[in-house]
Amino acid sequence: MSKHPLLCFLFFLSFSQLLLSSSSSFSNSTKICSHAQSLALLKLKNSFSIKNSYSEYFKHYHLPNYPKTEYWKEGSDCCSWDGVTCDLVTGHVIELDLSCSWLSGTIHSNSTLFLFPNLRSLNLAFNNFSGSSVSDGFGRFSSLTHLNLSYSSFSGRISPEISHLSSLVSLDLSWNVGAEFALDGFDSLVQNLTKLQKLHLRGVSISSVFPNSLLNRSSLISLDLSSCRLHGKFPDHDIHLLKLQLLYLVENYYLSGNFPRFSENNSLIDLVLQSTNFSGELRTSMGNLKSLQTLDLSHCQFSGSIPASLANLNLLQALDLSYCQFSGSIPASLGNLKSLQALDLSDCQFSGSIPASLENLTQITTLNLEWNHFSGKIPNIFYNLRNLNFLYLAGNNLSGQIPPSIGNLTNLHYLDVFQNQLEGAIPSPVNGFSSLSYVDLGYNLLNGTIPSWLYTLPSLVELDLSHNKLIGHIGEFQFDSLEKIDLSMNELHGSIPTSIFELVNLSSLYLFSNNLSGFLETSVHSNSMLPKIQILDLSHNNISGIFSWNVGKDTLHYLNLSYNSIIGFEMHPWSSMEILDLHSNLLQGPLPTPPNSTYFFSVSHNKLSGEISPLICKASSMQILDISHNNLSGMLPHCLGNFSKDLYVLNLQRNQFHGTIPQTFLKGNYIRTLDFNGNQLEGLVPRSLNICRELEVLDLGNNKINHTFPHWLGALPKLQVLVLRSNHFHGQIGFSKIKSPFMSLRIIDLAHNDFEGHLPEMYLRSLKAVMNIDEGDMTRRYMGGTYYQDSTVVTIKRLEMEFVKILNTFTTIDLSCNKFQGEIPKCIGNLSSLRGLNLSHNYLTGHIPLSFRNLNMLESLDLSSNKLSGRIPQELTSLTFLEVLYLSQNLLTGFIPRGNQFETFENDSYYENSGLCGFPLSKRCTTNEILKPSQEIEFEF
Question: Do 708 and 730 contact (CB within 8 A), yes or no?
Answer without folding.
Answer: yes
